[in-house]
Amino acid sequence: MEYNFREIEAKWQHYWREHKSYKTVLDTSLPKFYVLDMFPYPSGSGLHVGHPLGYIGSDIFSRYKRLKGFNVLHPMGYDAFGLPAEQYAIQTGQHPAITTEQNINRYREQLDKIGFSFDWDREVRTSDPQYYKWTQWIFIQLFNSWYNKKTNKAENISTLINCFEINGFKGTSDDILTGDLEIYHDGFTAQEWKDFSSSTKENVLQQFRLAYMGDTMVNWCPQLGTVLANEEVKDGVSERGGYPVERKRMSQWCLRITAFADRLLNDLEGIEWSESIKEAQRNWIGRSEGSSLKFKVQGSNAEIEVFTTRPDTIFGVTFLTLAPEHELVNELTTDEYRNAVNEYVTYARNRSERERMSEVKRITGQFTGAYAINPLNGEKIPVWVGDYVLAGYGTGAVMAVPAGDQRDWDFAKHFNLPIIPINKDVDISEAADATKDALMINSGFLNGITGREAIKAAIKEIEKLGVGKGKTNYRLRDAIFGRQRYWGEPIPVYYNDGVPCVMKEEALPLVLPEVDKFLPTETGEPPLARAKDWNYETTTMPGWAGSSWYYLRYMDANNKSAFVGKEAADYWQDVDLYLGGAEHATGHLLYVRFWTKFLFDLGYIPKQEPAKKLINQGMIQGVSAFAYRLLPLKVVITSARPVFISKEIVADYVSQKITTQQLLEKVNSKIPGYCNLEDILKDNAIAISQIHVDVNLVDNNILDIKGFQKWREEFVDAVIITEDDGKYICGSEVEKMSKSKHNVVSPDKIVEDYGADCLRLYEMFLGPLEQSKPWNTNGISGVSNFIRKLWRLYHNKQNEFEVSGEVATAAELKTLHKTIKKVEEDIERFSFNTSVSTFMICVNELTDLKCNKRAILEPLAVILSPYAPHVAEELWNLLGNKESVTKTQFPKWNQQYLVEDSFEYPVSFNGKVRFKLTMPLQLNKEEIEKQVISSPEMSKFLNGDQIKKIIIVPGRIVNIVI
RNA sequence: GCGGAUGUGUCGUAAUUGGUAGCCGAGCCAGACUUAGGAUCUGGUGCCGCGAGGCGUGGGGGUUCGAGUCCCUUCAUCCGCACCA
Questions:
Q1: B57 C1' – A121 CA distance, angstroms?
Q2: CA–C1' A735–B44 (A)
Q3: Could you tell me which residues come within 8 angstroms of residue A651 by beta carbon, excluding any fewer than 6 positions away?
Q4: Of all protein residues, which has its CA closest to the C1' atom of B13?
Q5: Chain B, protein-covered positions (CB within 7 A)
Q6: Residue A960, CA: closest nucleotide via C1'?
Q7: Which of A126, A754, A911, A915 has its CA 20 to 30 A from that of A535?
């Protein structure tokens, strides 16, 4: 045996744990560096090889920064509340806390085997009452705060109450307003405020609080029995479980994230996050600027308010469309159209969200009989109802400009409504044209200017007439914060005569109560309603609550008196490097920014962005393996045994290179009399189904037949039809790694077979960190060889450590310093895959030089230690160092060893390399030119042409332009 | 439809500011040592061509002495948002 990774890795993992090598303490004498991984949800299936990818990257960077003299905070914890544990609890009755605990222990065991440098003394678990105590505390702060538009920050609600007591409230025009005040539309005086009952006061304040009870349309999932956030719904079904989701109006706890929309959008500028994440967030916030506009309704007091981004097109309006759910639909509809409208509204409501999405192109609508008046030209225009207008965006009503908007155009064509051209020389006979650059026509005072200019002019006029005003609209909705679930943080609220009150901070945590079952009650109330003497809110917080501030807790994880102490917050500030998957773009990564801004506004933390730099590691996909099962249909089966056919044979069959008869003959030769050949041929009734095979039973697409037969009881005596050489070839496909697809590769197995260092190096070697790629173990031998080669360099045949004290030669030093330089540059730009190659080149060169010198090995062990800490630590130790390699400094590379004395210049003519010339590197441009021109090859390739120009890049290239 | 990203050998990939395309690894081929190991070592391996040479970074065009890299255009794949007014 040579390099024994099992022994070495166990030894050093034990050492690090015993010596708390990675414990971090606040030390103001050192510069800080905070490296954070998105903490995992501890699922029942354990880690797969995809999970550690980001952790390895962040670990390399953390270890590197430590060697560079930084005080590095590199913590880990668990996002422990979540649906799967609860679903499991519902099925088995097992308390989710127990399942979660077990899963966490398994995760920890797996993580420990990979040799991460986490400071486990700072571990957090969101489901721990000592943690969620502070999540609840933050909720209370949100409840006790409002957003002051004047100061543009969150403030304690008392400043608002003060304001009411002194000035009263002027209603919607008051610029301290951020909530949508429908109830207190006309405002109130200071005296009226004082006279309000406490419940009326609270009703008013609810319109301002950052945590409030809102009556909103929610995504209701009947199967899961809970509401879901927008990002938990994909294509009309729940992200988890894939159950249908419907829209439902419910009273819910909400967080007023919309108050922060502008800052969430603008502050994206200042952070180093990938463009795709930023863009996803911009998209999600969906800021659009335009104007509100009120249309009077003929013969009614009602006004229809619309939002438009194109007020310039106001003269092209030929009808209004209301969403079917719009509150004025009923009031406006004339008796003549009442039945038709009711019918249409019912139809639209019953169309599920899913249908509505999949039938986007289907145009439906109904005239209400009502007419509105265009406030700018007094034209009478019909009011329609149509489900292409969404109730949830803007005002739920649009002014339809068929000339400029395709949806309006389609609607107008379908119902034969008029289309007024508003742009000069623009053809709208086949489609609408939304250009802003054409000159306006048929547009009153806007005629003759471009749409771009007209937008400003129109808003000015609209505001002058008092029929609307310039307005910014957001797609972003307030975040629904209540979940009808058990396994989440209880919301620290109780009710006094139906008026919500938050608990006193001293009374926290409000601990999750025991319940007899984890299901909703018979009356449809959330599981918490089952708890005895539970006088609190029965919904719990959503999964993202605990993860919206965990990075702050790590700074001061054991603080009993604050969510984070001032000293710790001031020192650690924010995350310098955040690593995690891109799938949280519009969920976690938006909420964590929201909470950070809020806590910043209240003065608890010094930064208003959580993370300076974000790297999204790519997803590692699984390579699924398939076996092909022969399914005889409508056929007399004489054998009930399952039959599997090797892929190549199937492929032949499918591509009809062999006939059904040949296939069956093949089957029959293996199991005579398997089925009635004639009947099969008569009906041509044969089908092949694909089944996922556990990838651990497959090597290079070749199936372990015995293992496969043992895998499932029903396969024990399955008939396997192989290729002629007796091999069964599986099919393969790249899919998401998941238990149900049996394509999960566990890091444990890799560690077991090759060692943790090898796993770390290989995961990095696989390609750029940010790129998604399928897992493929085939190439791992190269990395494994590298470690063994390094080991062998410093061990003799008897596996005894043998190192020479001789002075290193120039060539050896060159190799070393080249490597240090490259590795340092690679780490700084997160190009970990290229440094693995660099190490390989280094060891190859040292092997060629037969170099086993201490002077080379010592620094090499240090620069290798972020990547392969165990083997580096062992070598470092063998060299006689008492302290751990992690306590040392990253070596400095020295230019002097890298200087070449000569360089082989490629000499090219018009960019085509014709010959090469070796010259001293120290030559300046003139000298190089002289040498090139006087070289014997020159005339041969110049071929009588005139030299126009010579371009020389010293140390690079010589190009002659002819 | 809008937005983001990616296209390089058989495969994973590499290539400072535009400067010898294909580093490193896998696979494959040949050889050595050995005799059957999933070991180690050496050499070869983009395509066409006997060769000189030519062609090559998804396709087409452009800028340049010179383009994987910059610009325009187009195609393909992946991801996000989507009847957002």
A1: 50
A2: 36
A3: none
A4: A767
A5: 3-5, 11-15, 17, 19-21, 23-27, 39-42, 65-67, 78-85
A6: B65
A7: A126
Q: Residue A310, CA: closest nucleotide via C1'?
A: B85
Whole-angstrom Cα distance, residue A748 to residue A759?
Answer: 10
Which residue's entry shows tokens 């330089």?
A821
Give the residue-averaged pLDDT of A375-393.
90
Q: How far is the CA of A787 from the C1' of B41 (A)?
A: 17
A175-212 b/e (C-beta count within 10 Å ≥ 16 → b): ebbbbebeebeebbeeeebeeeeeebbbebbbbbbbbb
- Which nucleotide is the nearest neighbour of A235, by CA and C1'? B82
- Residue with minimal CA–C1' distance to B66 is A911
- A205 and A178 Cβ atoms separated by less than 8 Å: no
- Integer-rounded Cα Rg, in Å, for chain A is 35
Report the mean per-residue pLDDT for chain A.
87
Distance CA A322 to C1' B79 in A: 34
pLDDT at A835 over 90: yes
Residue A589 CA to nucleotide B84 C1', Å? 22
**Rounded distance in angstroms from the CA atom of residue A12 to the C1' atom of nucleotide B22:** 39
Q: What is the mean pLDDT of residues A630-636?
A: 56
As beta bridge partners, residue A73 has: A34
pTM of the model: 0.91
Coil, helix or strand at residue A126: coil
Q: How many Å apart are CA A490 and CA A487, to the nearest integer?
A: 9
| Residue closest to sugar C1' of B23 by CA | A837
- How far apart, in Å, are the Cα atoms of A891 and each of A67, A152, A192, A860, A862? 9, 48, 73, 9, 7
Question: Cis peptide leading into A509, omega within 30 of 0?
Answer: yes
- Say whether pLDDT at A228 is over 90: no
Nearest residue to B3 via alpha carbon and C1':
A279
DSSP for A536-576? Answer: B---B--THHHHTSHHHHHTTTT-SSSSS-HHHHHHH-SEE
pLDDT band at A823 (very low <50, low <70, confident <90, very high): very high
pLDDT of A913 strictly over 90: no
Helix, strand or coil for residue A279?
A: helix
The per-residue pLDDT for A147 is 92
Instruction: Fill in the DSSP letter of residue A618.
Output: P
Which nucleotide lies closest to A792 by the C1' atom and the CA atom? B40
CA→C1' distance for A68 and B16 (Å) = 23
Give the mean model confidence (pLDDT) for residues A495-510. Answer: 93
Nearest to A54 by CA among A694, A583, A545: A583
Q: Which of A736, A761, A771 is nearest to A615 (CA)?
A: A771
Tokens of A668: 């029959």
Amino acid A582: pLDDT: 87
Which nucleotide is nearest, taking the CA of residue A585 and each C1'? B80
- Taking residues A515-537, what's their average pLDDT? 89
Distance from residue A621's CA to nucleotide B76's C1', rounded to whole Å: 21
User: What is the per-residue pLDDT for A671?
Assistant: 58
| pLDDT tens by residue, A768-787 | 998 888 888 888 999 999 99
Assigned token pair, A365: 């609508």
Query: Which segments within A41-192 are labelled E, that is strand?
Result: 71-73, 145-148, 153-156
Residue A586, nucleotide of least CA–C1' distance: B80
The amino acid that residue A682 corresponds to is K
Nearest nucleotide over every DNA/RNA strand to the A313 CA, judged by C1':
B85
ipTM of this complex: 0.93
C1' (B32) to CA (A5) span, angstroms: 30
Q: Do the bridges between strand A698-699 and strand A702-703 make them parallel or antiparallel, or are there none, so unpaired? A: antiparallel
Question: Residue A728 CA to nucleotide B59 C1', Å?
Answer: 40
Question: What pLDDT score was predicted for residue A703?
Answer: 82
Exposure class string for A602-625: b at 16+ Cβ within 10 A, else e: bebbebbbbbbebbbbbbbbbbbb
